[in-house]
Amino acid sequence: MNSRQKKIELSIGLSIGVISFLVYLFTLSPAVGFIDAGELAAAACTLGIAHPTGYPLFTLVGRIFSMLPVSSEEIIRLNIMAAFFVACGMVLFYHLLCELLFEYPQKIKILASVFSTVSLAFSQTVWSQATGIEVYSLHIFLIMLTLLWLLRAYRSNKFRDWLLFSSLWGLAFTNHLTSILIAPASLYLFIKANGLTKSSFKKIIFVTPAFFISLSLYIYLPIRSAHNPILNWGNPETAEKLFWHVSGKQFRVWMFSSTEAAGRQLSQYLHKLPQEFFYLPLLISLFGIVFLLIHNRKIFFWILLLLLTTVSYSINYDIHDIDSYFLLSYAAWMMFTAFGIVSLTEKLPNYAFNIFSIVILGFSVLTAAEHWKGADRSGEYLVEDYTKNVLAELPPNSILISYQWDYLISASYYFQYIKNFRPDIILIDKELLRRSWYFKQLNRNYPALYEKSKNEITLFLRELNKFEHDEPYEYAVIEGAYAEMMKSFVDTNIDSVRCFVTSEIEPPYLRGYYRIPYGLTAELRKDNSAYLERTLPAYTFHNITGTDTYTKNLLHLIVVSLTSRAAYEKQFNKEENERWFQQQAEEILH
Predict the structure, then answer these.
(1) Among 314, 483, 534, 571, which has the minimal tally of Cβ within 10 Å of its Cβ?
(2) Which of residues 375, 401, 423 is at a domain's end?
(3) CB 102 within 8 A of CB 135
(4) Same domain assignment for residues 355 and 408
(5) Same domain, residue pair 358 and 478
(6) Pairing of strands 399-402, 426-429
(7) CA-based angle 464:465:471, to the nearest 5?
């Protein structure tokens, strides 16, 4: 290309990035969202250690963004970070497509690249990663950058390009381990460029150190863990615990669990796939597949490897929030789409090409408009409202035991540790109590609580050690020690502080205590004969805009809790209070 053509391509790529970024900003979440958002934000702001696999690069980059003077709220700065990296990722994807289509006329190359990139940028899952903090925003950016350099290394076959590819790939691993999914496709292109010769093996040996130099960023985890941060998931100080954390040992139970689970996830993927792109780009991708099979089988098999590797791995991870694991497969589909545009336009006369361009680019705008409502999180405050209301209604220095990671616990890390909102509340994650690392964090943050239950904790950890090291253990013994330990948190404190639970905590774990509906939680009491009086809480909820499963589930939890308190008020003939709680529940529903 001449310099003018390069400037045109660069300008178009930059325009796509700017437009995408602005759209993402308009639909950006102004608050803490569901699942891991609060925990990731707190880890970034405090330079802590997040859930497996630790995400050291994301944490460090997040720390920088959390300090930028673009908002008074750290969470908004970090949500902007998500929009920024996804938009940059789309610029890189556009240039990746231009690299794939280098041999075709510029007008066709640009049209195919723009349409496919815009289709990806405003697909449901990619757009969702741009509106709130998550590790996949940076993952999109790094994977696109790595694949772009892979193609350049393949075309030039220069040692320096393979060296840079190796370095970028290692860096991508320090953000998310699913970067391994490009391994088969990368090896395929390397062999196509170099063959299976002695010199090609030497080249692999010489570029590998660059990968491990980048990967060494994981040293952040044990170094930071040794300083006992307020968030220290996994406590990865030792080599053993570092390996457990980086390899996601505690999540392996959901990996390759059954063919039934894989079939269910595959069915869900295929069902959602057309909706991701509003149908037309996928239809065009079929033309691209046929076109590549005829004209360029190397690139066909490369893209196919990206697609099949991603889908094969992801369907074998049996979790609910699986959509983000399919991101690379969506990019692969849009690569096929780009070649589909080529196949449909390469023989068109100018006037027909212009009409076709207007039609499909107009369709891109319609797709973005169609997906806008589902992607728009600009009014999403539900998790923030719920977390603040739960914490606000509790008496000073209360203990709250919960298993609501997606709705409450993760968000509470942000509000308690970053915003200093109700730091007096001791919030215990019922399921994290099953992990040995959690007790160091518990001791660091709540030393008095830990000390009172130290005997029960020691007995449980002795049994838990057997489980974590795959030694013989008795389920009844370990479960019994776990229940006794959890109960001790209440037994040793209930005479001095008030203790609460959320609704999902199973009664057998806290036997001997009555659960008195309190509002959004339930108070544990030794006796339930006397009326538990309380002032009416000043709940604050913004207009609820979400329609997703998480929103529906949380609304159900809120309504059930409020109606339970209304029924409790009725039991003691407190009609005015009954009406008040019932009215709160009805307002949430409507």
Answers:
(1) 571
(2) 375
(3) no
(4) no
(5) no
(6) parallel
(7) 105
Report whether 402 contacts 411 (CB < 8 A): no
Q: Do 393 and 542 share a domain, yes or no?
A: yes
Q: Under DSSP, is residue 531 helix (H, G, I), strand (E, B) or coil?
A: coil
Residue 1 has a pLDDT of 67
Does the pLDDT of residue 402 top 90, yes or no? yes
User: 349, 375, 401: which is the final residue of a domain?
Assistant: 375
Q: How far apart are CA 220 and CA 57, in angstroms?
A: 9
Residues 253 and 401 in one domain: no
Under DSSP, the state recorded for 317 is B
Domain count, the chain: 2
Cα 452 to Cα 428, 449, 480, 505, 508: the distances in Å are 15, 5, 19, 22, 21
**175 and 132, same structural domain?**
yes
Same domain assignment for residues 393 and 318 = no
Residue 264 neighbours by CB distance under 10 Å: 13
Task: For residue 122, give its domain range.
Answer: 3-375
For residues 559 and 546, what is the distance between their CA atoms, to the nearest angstrom? 16
CA 244, CA 567: separation in Å to the nearest integer?
46
* Cis amide linkage into residue 53, ω under 30° from 0: yes
